[in-house]
Amino acid sequence: MTKKNTSRLGLRQSVGVLGLAVVVVATSSGPRAAVDLPMAEPESVGMSSERLQRVDEYFQRFVDDNQIVGAVTLIARKGQVVHHTALGWKYKEENISMSTDTIFGLASMTKPIVSTALMMLFEEGRFRLDDPISDWIPEYADHMVRISDGPRQRQVREDRPVTIRHVLTHTSGLTLNVAGAGLSEADRRWVTNDGEPFVTLGERVARAAKIPGAFHPGDHWQYGASTDYVAVLVEKISGMSIDAFLKERIFEPLGMLDTFYNVPRDKVDRVAAVYRPNDDFRAELSRAPAFQEPTTYFRGTAGLSSTAADYFRFAQMVANGGEFDGVRLLGRMTVDLMISNNIGTGKDVYIRGPGYGFGLGFGVLLDPTQSFDTLSPGSYGWGGAFGTLYWADPVEDLIGLMFIQLSGHGPLNIRQRFTNVVTQAVVDSVADQRPTVQGYAIPR
Q1: Per the structure, how many domains does the chain have?
Q2: What CATH number has the domain bearing residue 64?
Q3: What digits encode the pLDDT tens for the residues 189-235?
Q4: How far apart are CA 48 and CA 93, in angstroms?
Q5: Which of 44, 85, 173, 324 lies at a CB distance of 3.0 to 4.6 Å from 213, suitable for a disulfide?
Q6: CA end-to-end span of the chain, whole Å?
């Protein structure tokens, strides 16, 4: 990697609008996806340029306190990007500045993309949402669940089969984790491949059928391996690997040229280092950027890497009802269903906090008065373990993206407060507008 000297605060890079000129401070190769973004003056879409500066000020405080080392943020309204900024460092130990074309590990922000892939097959009439997954993964026919009777556990047959809707909504109870599953030693060795890596996710999922579910399908919401099953279903139904399917059917059509499971060697110098908090909650290096040998093990729960600009293209496609820049991936009614609550009431979506339900791959805000997020009812999105976050507010036609790389960021509450510093920049009056939610007024 080439070292770049920076000031104490790090070099700030922005792609914004000043007057009539588009200002791009780029690396030597230039942030390709950033240049291609639809840009607009904030005031032209009802936002304040002055108030948007608070977004940078917010993240700069975390950089100054060494709680994070850098960030990329992107804000769009009415389909137009009004803020796209990088600050701090991509790799602080080498004095390499953050740039708007930095590639980040998405972790769980992989899930909405993989879920979208399966819903594209839904639109082809390949399945019904309430079809059992055993139609394509036969090992899950007559699957068992574990029931606790005090300190003892017993296994019983599922009250109902695990369906495609269950794995899309994290209500399946399925897991790939053998801990506490009560397996025999022989079954444990079978499920774990005797400690050897699996070549494909499909092989691991098939063997994991011996692990009993945590509850009867549909009874609870549990964050875990469900989207791995979504990825395998895409492969089984389409006859393609999830890696190839995403590239051919989503990334290339949308122009997401910097989104991969396997980051190419010639783009590794754009990858951000991953950090973790030390005992004083200061960021310390956890993993330096390095080329990883290509894998054939493609998870649905995590594994993709991308840029903020690329992910915006996906996010805007969803916000548009399935279309972006002349490319349609989904029908509007399918998107309506995906961003509506599909899990009923009484199920705690604890990862997003109170006030949330869950759709088909997306957390869905049902009650803003109970939520940490200052967003409208019907807002949706998801985040990743390293601090990436995406949300869309369909009432305000507003999208927010923040990308950092810090595991264990929870105590900072940095993602929850991000909504505040974005939504306060919306300044237009609604007196002459008729806001509508993409989908149902109050998600069902």
Answers
A1: 2
A2: 3.40.710.10
A3: 999 999 999 999 999 999 999 999 999 999 999 999 999 999 999 99
A4: 35
A5: 173
A6: 50
Q: Map residue 284 onto helix, strand or coil.
A: strand
Predicted pLDDT at 35: 57
CA-atom Rg of the chain in angstroms: 22
Enumerate residues 6+ apart whose C-beta is below 8 A from 56: 12, 73, 85, 87
Concatenating the DSSP letter of every residue in 128-155 gives -TTSBGGGTSGGGTT-EEEEEETTEEEE
Place of tokens 């082809």: 124
The structure's pTM equals 0.91
Helix axes 49-64, 414-423, angle to 10 degrees: 160
- My answer on whether 122 and 70 are in the same domain is no
Residue type (1 letter), 410 = G
Question: Which pLDDT belongs to residue 424?
Answer: 97
Q: What angle do CA 224, 362, 425 make, to 5 degrees?
A: 125
The DSSP symbol for 304 reads -
Integer Cα distance of 175 and 182 in angstroms: 13
Sign of CA dihedral 326, 100, 361, 116: positive
| Domain membership flag for residue 74 | yes
- Short-list 223, 236, 204, CA closest to 132: 236
Q: Are 283 and 406 in contact (CB under 8 A)?
A: yes
Q: Is residue 393 part of a domain?
A: yes
